[in-house]
Amino acid sequence: MFNSALVNRFRQLETPFYYYDLQLLKATLKVCADAAFKHHFHVHYAMKANFNTEVLNTIQSLDFGADCVSGNEVLAAINQGFKSDKVVFAGVGKSDKEINLALDRDIFCFNAESVQELQIINDLAAAKGKTANIAIRINPNIDAHTHHFITTGLEENKFGINTWELPVVAAKLRQCPNLQFLGIHFHVGSQINDLTVFRDLCSKVNEMQLWFQDEGFKVKILNVGGGLGVDYHQPDQNNIVDFESYFQVFADYLQVNEAQEVHFELGRALVAQCASLISRVLYVKNGIKKNFLILDAGMTELIRPMLYQAYHQIENLSKTDSLKVRKSESLEDGKIQSEELTTYNLQPTTHYDVVGPICESTDCFRTDVELPESERGDLIAIRTAGAYGEVMASGYNLRDHVQSVYSE
Ligand code: LLP
After folding, report:
1. How do residues 209-245 score in pLDDT, each as one tens digit?
2. Alpha carbon of 91 to ligand 1 centroid (Å)
3. How far apart are alpha carbons 360 and 377 in whole angstroms?
4. Would the CB of 266 count as within 6 Å of ligand 1?
């Protein structure tokens, strides 16, 4: 991802910053759009993954919808050019102010997460003489086999409405004249690489839509949420997710009739690989038990490793002396059949705990990282940081807000 011209460009810049490869973002969006639209699936981009203006601008230009979880995300999506009739609004705690704002913008749909919320949306819509489109977010009680903190679809989680509450939901929908029931919504969790989880989700969606139909409701929208994972370990080899296989699961296992639409809310899979956090080594502290590489970026710029024990690949961009060996296999007639490029690092390496400057012991990107022997001033890239990176940055320790730099 980083050629010498780019590293030279980085050398002139103040660190830390997020570097966005907008070409890779566009390529990812194109692959996703082609794979989804082939099945007539609708994709809403989950704004929470990254609401950097350039990123949003690129995504909306490809005609994706937006999945929002706050009033401000609804506003940002619309201001950025997403069409309001392609905006969905989820969240367990929508305030009256946020609901009113979304009603005023005539968004496509509210994903309602409790019986009480249905009543509130109905009352606020009635006061404006409007009807609000509703999808019921159902907690499918499916284990996403992902990190505990990013699992959302189990009964112990706060999200969605449990299936045993659905009779009350049906009664409430019948009593609320200012709600228009559109369909059902699910989201099982994030960073899911096991596609069987989505197969199980399809079974649940099929079961639930039948339940609503038996109750006399027309189910027009099946919204299956997001959650598709990315490869944090091999960002260059797998820089674009296998969207084909993902959408194929839903094409194969979801029961969809001609009047229905299938909607997705993808965040991470669209934006994770297009950005890296670039920082500099401030100090190298060699101890008896540990060697510390102290960076000028920390948990205030990228909190995922500290919050979810998330793995991000760490590279020293200033020490890239390597030998590229081309191994080729040839046929009997001498023609080259396949070629493989293997990179051998020529630098002596050391194991480091790569840490940030924040006054917290948890401010550590990873322990025991093997890197070329590093020195003050070296540029360090922390990869696959485009999703839940810049947007989760904080001002703790009164740090400067992290900057963004874009591919040319
Ligand atoms: N839809 C709903 C209702 C969601 O709650 C989420 C993510 C998404 C869609 C998008 O999921 P994705 O396709 O990005 O997996 N900060 C955590 C991830 C939190 C995900 C929250 N919900 C992390 O850094 O891993």
Report:
1. 999 999 999 999 999 999 999 999 999 999 999 999 9
2. 11
3. 23
4. yes
Residue 371 lies in a domain: yes
Q: How many beta carbons lie within 10 A of that of residue 116, not counting itself?
A: 10
**Together in a domain, 27 and 97:** yes
Question: Which CATH number covers residue 171?
Answer: 3.20.20.10
- 285 and 260 in one domain? no
326 and 232 in a common domain = no
The answer to whether the CB of 70 is under 6 A from ligand 1 is no
* Cα 272 to ligand 1 centroid, rounded to whole Å: 12
The number of domains in the chain is 2
Task: Measure 49 CA to ligand 1 centroid, in angstroms.
Answer: 7
160 Cβ closer than 6 Å to some ligand 1 atom: no
Q: Under 8 Å CB-to-CB from 40, ≥6 apart: which residues?
A: 261, 262
**Ligand 1 contact, 356 CB (< 6 A):** no
How close is the Cα of 217 to the center of ligand 1, in Å? 29
For the Cβ of 383 lying below 6 angstroms from any atom of ligand 1, the answer is no
Give pLDDT tens digits for 320-352.
866 556 666 666 666 666 666 666 667 889 999
**Of 242, 272, 302, which marks where a domain is finished?**
272
Beta bridge partners of 109: 88
Same domain, 295 and 267: no
DSSP 229: -
- Pocket lining: 304 vs ligand 1, CB cutoff 6 Å: yes
Q: Are residues 151 and 281 in the same domain?
A: no
* Residue 369 CA, distance from chain mean position: 25
User: Which 8-state DSSP code applies to residue 323?
Assistant: E
Of the residues 64, 185, 265, 277, which should be mutated to test ligand 1's pocket, given the most ligand atoms within 8 Å of the CB? 265
241, 272, 303: which is the final residue of a domain?
272
Structural domain for 147, as ranges = 22-272
Ranges of residues in the chain whose predicted pLDDT is under 70: 144, 146-156, 321-345
Q: Assign residue 337 the CATH number of its domain.
A: 2.40.37.10
Q: CB–CB of 217/178 below 8 Å? A: no
Atom of ligand 1 nearest to the CA of 111: 3
230 CB-near residues (< 8 Å, 6+ apart): 191, 238, 241, 268, 269, 272, 273, 384, 387
Q: Is the CB of 187 under 6 A from ligand 1?
A: yes
In whole angstroms, give the CA distance from residue 147 to residue 167: 32
Q: Facing residues of 68 across strands?
A: 89
